[in-house]
TrEMBL record:
Membrane-spanning intervals of the chain: none
Listed name of the protein: Uncharacterized protein
Organism of derivation: Batrachochytrium dendrobatidis (strain JEL423)
Family, similarity comment: Belongs to the CDC123 family.
Domain of life per record: Eukaryota
Biased composition (Basic and acidic residues): 1-11
Region (Disordered): 1-23, 88-112
Classification via InterPro entries: CDC123 (IPR009772)
Cellular component annotations (GO), alphabetically ordered: cytoplasm
Length: 355
């Protein structure tokens, strides 16, 4: 049995916004440095033995950032591939991505990123052929619905670009990562990070029932709960004590202690998230977490409780205008066919010699 855990840690603001539960609940202020400290490449090397193998491409070309920020969903043109330097956190070496772009590329409606695409293809191969992407802080999990498999699994650059272009979480990383920091001053070169990175993480088919969120306050583990709060899993009740003990041991040995240990067989670290009201407290309230002095695993105790917590993940996120235009009150099947045709039409527009 393998568990996956993500930690809520007082180091940065999240890319997914949640309304605070109470104005009376006080949290420590975040600074821009706190946010930068939780950038993926800042923590991965310290915990690489107990998380997924990953490759970081940095810095991303500014033309690619402009493409992600541009309105509309369209994929870059297919191009010849060229070598690209990489930042591979497994080998603790870094180098820059070639940012050379032709003068005509900026004038075309469908830009081309040959060196970036070539390196993505190479990295996907090195990671086993299947990956999931993220930028400095966030993965585009709010956009998983737009893929045919409704997951973040990617096997080509086009899969990655479609997810990144469709995600509000990615848009937040690009333009709003520092806005809630106490030292943020608009217009003082603080509107965005100086560099962006594309993280490609090895794909595993993880069981949602075995993913847990842990809360760390002042260096102490003060709460744990199942990540999928909208479903009841009977076996979690039967194994609650064992799972709770495993999570506590994992925190003590891998997170709190931070000492090297290559043997990490039962639990994988998924990510670090901020300790604050903008992060979903799931089966807790934030007031409970702040007042907690012991870490007890909370799970959904019944089907009735699961129905109470059930909600459509990320339903509050905006849908691209093109999706609304394609839907036009169609059935799910009709919408799917229209969406496929829309993508095919976009690809035809890019390669047609008459354009």
């Amino acid at each position: 049995m393998a568990e996956q855990t993500e930690l809520e840690h007082p180091t940065r603001l999240p890319s997914q916004q949640q309304q605070p539960e109470s104005n009376a609940t006080a949290f420590p202020g975040f600074t821009i440095q706190h946010v930068n400290n939780c950038c993926f490449s800042s923590w991965y090397s310290h915990f690489s033995q107990c998380t997924f193998k990953s490759i970081v491409i940095q810095p991303l070309p500014e033309t690619f950032i402009d493409y992600l920020n541009a309105d509309g969903i369209y994929l870059p043109s297919e191009v010849n591939h060229a070598p690209l330097a990489e930042y591979d956190v497994d080998s603790d070496t870094s180098s820059e991505v070639n940012q050379d772009v032709s003068d005509t590329e900026e004038d075309t409606p469908n830009p081309s990123f040959p060196t970036l695409e070539a390196h993505i293809i190479s990295s996907i191969t090195r990671l086993g052929g299947r990956i999931f992407p993220k930028l400095n802080w966030s993965s585009p999990k709010d956009a998983a619905w737009i893929t045919f498999a409704t997951t973040l699994q990617c096997t080509t650059p086009a899969d990655i670009f479609l997810l990144l272009k469709s995600s509000d979480f990615i848009a937040h990383d690009l333009s709003h990562a520092y806005e809630e920091c106490v030292d943020f001053e608009p217009g003082h070169d603080q509107d965005r990070p100086k560099e962006f990175e594309l993280v490609l993480r090895e794909w595993f088919d993880l069981a949602p029932s075995m993913q847990f969120r842990c809360f760390v306050h002042h260096g102490d583990l003060v709460g744990m709960c199942q990540r999928d709060s909208g479903n009841y899993f009977e076996f979690l009740k039967l194994n609650r004590n064992t799972i709770e003990l495993d999570l506590c041991r994992f925190f003590d040995s891998k997170i709190s202690g931070k000492f090297p240990d290559p043997s990490c067989k039962n639990i994988w670290l998924m990510d670090f998230n901020p300790f604050g009201p903008t992060t979903d407290a799931l089966l807790y309230t934030w007031q409970e977490i702040l007042e907690s002095t012991e870490s007890k695993l909370r799970i959904v105790e019944s089907t009735a409780e699961a129905e109470h917590h059930a909600k459509s993940n990320f339903s509050h996120n905006r849908l691209p205008k093109e999706v609304f235009d394609l839907s036009n009150n169609a059935s799910i099947h009709e919408f799917s066919e229209r969406f496929k045709q829309g993508l095919l039409h976009a690809q035809f527009d890019k390669v047609s010699p008459e354009r």
